[in-house]
Design brief:
elongated; mainly alpha; 352 residues; 69% helix
Length: 352
C-alpha cells in the first residue's frame, strides 16, 4: 500500500469516527432545538469540506457558526475530534481515537468478561491444543520438526520426486532440496551434501538394529553394505545393494510381490494422511515410485529417478550418485520405520 493510499484510508477512518461522534451528539439534543440544528449544520459543513478535499485536521477543528450548548457530551466529542486531528497530522497513517469514559468502562467490563471466558473456556482449550500439538510433533518425522510449517511443501516435493525424506536427511539438506529449481539443481544439492546424508543414514541405522520383524535384519545388513560401498566412492554398488535390501522389505517384511506392493502403495493419499501415518505414507509413495513398471527397451524409456527394477536389470543409464542416495534413503527409512513399529507394538496393542 502506498503512502497516499494509507493517508486516504486514515482520512476515511477519521471521517467515519467524526460522523459517529456527531451522531451521538445529535441524539443527545431534543428534536427541533437550536443545539440540534447547530449539530446538523456542523455535520453538513464537515461533509461538504470532506467532499471538497479538506484535511482531517480542518474538518475536526472547524467550529460551528453558532456555539452549541456546551453539554458534557458535546465537549467530550469535540475534545476527541481535536485529539484525533492532532494525532492524524502527526502520524499520517496511524489513527488513535480517544475513547470517552463510557467506552473505557465498557472495555474494562469486556476485558473482565474476556478474562473469565479465557479461564473457563479458552485456557482448557489451549491446554488441549498443546497436547494435540505435542502428539503431532511426536509423530512428525524428527528431521522435519525444525521445518515446521513446510509439511505440505515437503509432501508435494516427495510426490513429484519420489525422494524419501523421512528419518533422513537432516533439515538443512531438506530445505536446500525444497529450494532447488529443477532436477539438475536437486542432483547438485545431493552431491554436495553426500557426506552429510551418509552420516545421517549411519545414525538412523544405528537406531534400527535388533528388530524382530521378518526381513528387517537382512534389509538392515544390505543397508550397511550399501553405506560402506558409498563411503568408498562406489555409488553404483551402493545403489545395487540398496535395491536388494528393498526386495527383502517387500517380500519378507510385507509378504508382497513387487506388483502387489506397487498397486497397494501407490493408492496412499498423502494429502489425506494424518501425522500418525505420514511416515509410512511417504515411504509407501516413494516405494511405489521406485517400483514403477519397467521394460528394458532403451535408455529413453527408463523411469525418472531411482527405479529398483532398472537397477537390478543393470540398466547402466539409471546408475548415478543421485539415484544411489535416493535408494539408500528409501531403504534406511524402511528399516528404521519397521523398528519403530516394533517399538510401538505394545502401545498399539493396548489401544486396540
Amino acid at each position: 500500500m502506498s503512502e497516499i493510499e494509507r493517508e486516504e484510508l486514515a482520512e476515511r477512518a477519521a471521517w467515519d469516527e467524526a460522523v459517529r461522534l456527531t451522531a451521538e451528539v445529535r441524539e443527545s439534543f431534543a428534536a427541533g432545538s437550536d443545539e440540534h440544528d447547530a449539530a446538523v449544520e456542523a455535520e453538513d459543513r464537515a461533509q461538504r469540506q470532506y467532499e471538497a478535499g479538506a484535511t482531517v485536521g480542518d474538518m475536526a477543528r472547524t467550529p460551528p457558526r453558532r456555539d452549541p450548548l456546551r453539554s458534557p457530551e458535546w465537549v467530550r466529542g469535540m475534545e476527541q475530534l481535536n485529539e484525533l486531528a492532532a494525532q492524524t497530522e502527526a502520524l499520517r497513517d496511524t489513527l488513535r481515537v480517544a475513547l470517552n469514559a463510557e467506552a473505557v468502562e465498557a472495555l474494562q467490563e469486556m476485558a473482565a468478561a474476556s478474562a473469565t471466558y479465557y479461564d473457563r473456556v479458552l485456557r482448557p482449550a489451549v491446554g488441549a491444543l498443546d497436547r494435540v500439538r505435542n502428539a503431532w510433533r511426536s509423530d512428525m518425522p524428527e528431521n522435519w520438526q525444525e521445518l515446521e510449517g513446510t509439511e505440505l511443501e515437503i509432501i508435494d516435493f516427495v510426490k513429484a520426486s519420489g525422494l524419501c525424506l523421512v528419518w533422513a536427511p537432516r533439515p538443512q539438506v531438506i530445505r536446500a532440496l525444497l529450494d532447488a529449481d529443477d532436477e539438475a539443481e536437486r542432483a547438485r544439492v545431493l552431491a554436495e551434501n553426500a557426506d552429510a546424508i551418509l552420516d545421517d543414514l549411519d545414525a538412523v541405522l544405528a537406531a534400527s538394529e535388533g528388530c524382530g520383524i521378518d526381513g528387517q535384519a537382512d534389509a538392515c545388513a544390505f543397508a550397511v553394505d550399501a553405506l560402506t560401498s558409498a563411503r568408498a566412492g562406489h555409488f553404483n554398488g551402493a545403489q545395487a545393494l540398496a535395491a536388494c535390501g528393498l526386495a527383502r522389505v517387500i517380500h519378507a517384511s510385507f509378504g508382497l510381490s513387487f506388483g502387489a506392493a506397487r498397486d497397494k502403495f501407490e493408492k496412499f493419499d498423502l494429502e489425506e494422511a494424518t501425522m500418525m501415518v505420514l511416515k509410512i505414507g511417504v515411504l509407501e509413495v516413494c516405494t511405489a515410485h521406485a517400483l514403477k513398471q519397467y521394460r528394458p527397451v532403451g535408455a529413453a524409456d527408463l523411469p525418472d529417478g531411482y527405479n529398483r527394477h532398472a537397477t537390478q536389470h543393470g540398466e547402466r543409464a539409471t546408475f548415478s550418485q543421485e539415484n544411489a542416495l535416493a535408494a539408500m534413503l528409501l531403504l534406511v527409512g524402511w528399516v528404521r520405520q519397521l523398528k519403530r513399529l516394533e517399538e510401538r507394538r505394545p502401545q498399539l496393542e493396548a489401544a486396540a
